[in-house]
Write a structure and sequence with these properties.
The protein has helices at about 15-30, 60-65, 70-85, 100-115, 115-130, 140-150, 155-160, 165-180, 200-215, and strands at about 5-10, 35-45, 55, 95-100, 185-190, 195. The chain is an alpha+beta fold. The strands form two sheets. Strands 2-1-5-6 form a four-stranded mixed β-sheet. A two-stranded antiparallel ribbon has the order 3-4. Helix 1 (about 15-30) packs across helix 9. The radius of gyration is 18 Å and the shape is globular. The two termini are about 20 Å apart. About 35% of the residues are buried.
Amino acid sequence: MSDNSISIDVVSDVVCPWCFLGEKRLRAAIAAVGDVDVTVRWRPFQLDPTIPPEGKDRKDYMRAKFGDGDRLHQIHANLTSLGAVEGISFDFDAIRVSPNTLDAHRVIRWAGTMGEAEQNRLVEELFSRYFERGENTGDAGVLIEAAKAAGMDTAVVETLLPTDADADAVRAEINTAARMGITGVPCFLLEGKYAVMGAQETGVLADAIRQIAAAKARGELEKAE
């Protein structure tokens, strides 16, 4: 890494539409600060770990959370508008299943062992498959196809996915985020310590990257524990 460098840990869930917005805005922010060497790592979070492995009917699940009124329609309309600005084609009506995301986070973890580029591609692939194509990202077949599209070694995914490999490690990371006080996502942790909460505008993220990278280059940052 160059002297002008920074690491960002993104705590997110792949069924969080705000996290998809945050991912797009982070990409744009990194492009805007081309003089800073940015390393991105994706960390797990589950909006609802109580969803069973087979998932839940999306309409029933949303109705239970938001009721039968106009609230959910308004939320989706707002997200669709915001997404269009970032190049996201949200298609909420296409989503049939609200999945448990533990397996998706396991695959993201494995992608990270293969490389930063593979992990970034997989995360975007999973967001797109769920929110733009309505695919069930709790399904093993969908996860394997996403891994293939991201350039991963699918033989590894096919072998490990039916097992409990790294399930406890993912849960431990989620518990660590909770102990750090992270109760909502996305959360961008710069240099492991300085948090930017929510799907902030691209300019806000870019400014944060510049400021923390500059402070790091001057030797002014406290070491993250």
